[in-house]
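Design request, tokens follow.
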């Protein structure tokens, strides 16, 4: 069987959510199925580390798809033609997009519908593209995989898709997320936080991630407690970051708030594992991979009580109303002052994290693939 895969998010040293999902799941499928040939569709020159085995054939398709007009050209022309040329039996697309022009059955991974709920925080042309195409993609797909029960219900309700067509596969966590030794914690704190404890956030710096309220809440927390603790924010600055910069500029305790920007992959587990607490109060998530990364690092968590986050976190985190600065501030106070609570959250995390692994995700995605194969063979 010839299985084509959309691998345009496999970017060396720049793997983020969709990239990690693609890397961890497809790498396993390739390893488990040497009897199949995999055609990887890249939209730019690729790194050889992403050619996982001899049964992988990498193909670069023009043009690089990083703009809605180029999305259309890449999927509707380049991908469609390549599927025909390589005689693909199935197409796996892990970024929520597919080709409407092909008859090749597609397993489509839709991570979330953030563009539906937060349309004002999506660039104009991207929102136009999503509004016109995403429903069509969901209807066209032979099967849909998504990363939480919340997202499954959201796709079902927003697009009127039968729940029988949607599989929940969840997300996993890399093996390098694990508890950090005391000596390493001291070194990380010396490097990043002047030797002090810190709350940690990692992800895009964007209004939907609620960084502006997190900053304001931390500043109020500091004004009340004067606790010797910092807030470290790791991640690239995305679009519409004006409110984040304004919150920072207004903060009394600016010196205790540090933007680390993009952090090297090997440093992230160390930063996570050395934190006093992980603070992730996003307004919306289809899953929230950093939550389970924190569980594996045995770091207590504060997160939001909306969308998929309660499902992912279970009892392993303090859950707060993300639009309430007061609630976020109080959550920080509890996380900082209550050592027994931190210990309990870590213990709950050890149990909750067992529900999620890339091995389980890949097996679930494999099952989705087999559902398509079985249906086509009838």
């Amino acid at each position: 069987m010839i299985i084509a895969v959309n691998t345009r998010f496999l970017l060396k040293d720049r793997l983020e959510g969709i990239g990690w999902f693609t890397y961890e799941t497809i790498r396993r499928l390739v390893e488990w199925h040497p009897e199949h040939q995999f055609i990887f569709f890249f939209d730019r020159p690729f790194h050889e580390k992403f050619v996982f085995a001899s049964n992988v054939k990498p193909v670069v398709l023009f043009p690089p798809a990083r703009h809605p007009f180029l999305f259309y050209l890449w999927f509707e022309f380049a991908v469609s033609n390549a599927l025909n040329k390589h005689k693909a039996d199935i197409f796996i697309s892990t970024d929520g997009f597919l080709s409407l022009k092909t008859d090749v059955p597609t397993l489509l991974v839709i991570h979330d519908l953030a563009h539906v709920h937060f349309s004002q925080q999506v660039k104009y042309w991207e929102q136009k593209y999503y509004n016109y195409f995403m429903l069509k993609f969901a209807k066209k797909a032979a099967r849909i995989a998504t990363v939480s029960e919340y997202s499954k219900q959201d796709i079902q309700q927003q697009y009127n898709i039968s729940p029988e067509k949607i599989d929940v596969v969840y997300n996993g966590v890399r093996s390098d997320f694990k508890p950090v030794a005391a000596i390493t914690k001291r070194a990380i704190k010396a490097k990043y936080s002047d030797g002090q404890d810190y709350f940690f956030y990692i992800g895009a710096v964007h209004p939907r991630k609620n960084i502006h309220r997190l900053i304001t809440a931390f500043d109020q927390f500091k004004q009340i407690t004067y606790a010797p603790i910092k807030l470290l924010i790791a991640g690239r600055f995305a679009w519409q970051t004006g409110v984040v910069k304004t919150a920072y500029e207004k903060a009394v305790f600016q010196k205790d708030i540090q933007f680390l920007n993009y952090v090297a992959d090997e440093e992230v587990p160390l930063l996570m594992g050395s934190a006093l607490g992980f603070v992730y109060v996003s307004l919306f998530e289809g899953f929230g991979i950093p939550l389970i990364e924190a569980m594996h690092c045995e770091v207590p968590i504060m997160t939001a009580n909306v969308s998929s986050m309660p499902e992912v976190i279970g009892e392993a985190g303090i859950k707060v109303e993300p639009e309430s600065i007061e609630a976020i501030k109080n959550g920080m106070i509890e996380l900082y002052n209550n050592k027994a609570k931190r210990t309990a959250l870590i213990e709950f995390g050890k149990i909750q994290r067992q529900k999620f692994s890339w091995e389980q995700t890949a097996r679930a995605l494999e099952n989705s693939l087999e559902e398509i194969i079985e249906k086509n063979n009838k």
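Comment from the thread starter after seeing the answer: thanks! The mean pLDDT is 96.
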